[in-house]
Amino acid sequence: MASVLIIEDDQRIRSSLASRLAERGHDVESVGRAMDGVELAVGGSFDVVVLDLGLPDIDGADALRMIRGVSSVPVIIATARDDESDIIGVLNAGADDYVVKPYSAEHLEARIRAVLRRTGDDAAPATIAVGGLEIDLNGHRATLDEEPLELTAREFELLAFLAQRAGTMISKRELLAEVWRQPYGGADKTVDVHLSWLRKKLGETAAEPRYIYTKRGVGVRLDAPPQ
Ligand code: CA
């Protein structure tokens, strides 16, 4: 959970991001003008700022410099420009990371988490909640609807990895590389077997998924069950 300031002039993007992040338990404030954002960013106690580069009043890059002049709050740049020199420029000007539009709330959230990990508030308990699932990353414990799950170390890692990127389809190759540390392995079976064990422990089946959705030839996605 993080307190997030979104500075974005596109009202549609702003409100959808704000509501998606709020749904996922974050404390979100959002503004459409750079100057309002700068004022809030330097005065507020935000964990992270998401700053659009193309803003109506002043350029996002200038807003970043103004924020950096007085504050070390982590800043993630959201840019529609995939121009490398822009991105290098804002990273050099003190941005912590960037996302290129269009990006999903889930993608942004993963970047937020990565930035917070790097800028380090390690005292904060790292807990991920997806629907009725709660995963305590530091304690290596997981619960489903408040009931503890008995998971092996590998099952826990698999669940935690999927939950950290909830809503995103992840290929089995990537799971093998990230969870099993086998970047060149072709052993899809390993992933399939662990997924089916994990499913069983979550009380679901491939035919009737609640949290774990697989798509043949594409990958697997963990998501909260539909309400
Ligand atoms: Ca814009």
Number of strands: 11
Q: So how many helices?
A: 8
> Pairing-aware structural class of the strands and helices?
alpha/beta
Tell me the distance between the termini.
Answer: 22 Å
CATH fold field value of the largest domain: Rossmann fold
In short:
This protein has 227 residues and is of the alpha/beta class.
Task: Describe the model.
- The protein has helices at residues 11-23, 34-43, 60-70, 84-92, 105-119, 153-164, 172-178, 188-201, and strands spanning 3-7, 27-31, 48-52, 75-79, 97-100, 127-130, 133-136, 141-144, 147-148, 212-215, 219-222.
- Strands 2-1-3-4-5 form a 5-stranded parallel sheet, with helices on both faces.
- It is of the alpha/beta class and 227 residues long.
- The radius of gyration is 19 Å and the shape is elongated.
- The chain is 40% helix and 20% strand.
- α2 runs parallel beside α3 (60-70) and α6 packs across α8 (188-201).
- The protein is built from 8 helices and 11 strands.
- The protein folds into 2 domains: 3-118, Response regulator (Rossmann fold, 3-Layer(aba) Sandwich), CATH 3.40.50.2300; 127-222, Arc Repressor Mutant, subunit A, CATH 1.10.10.10.
- The longest helix has 15 residues, at 105-119.
- The model has no long low-confidence stretch (mean pLDDT 88).
- β7 and β8 form a beta hairpin.
- Calcium ion binds at residues 9-10, 52, 54-55.
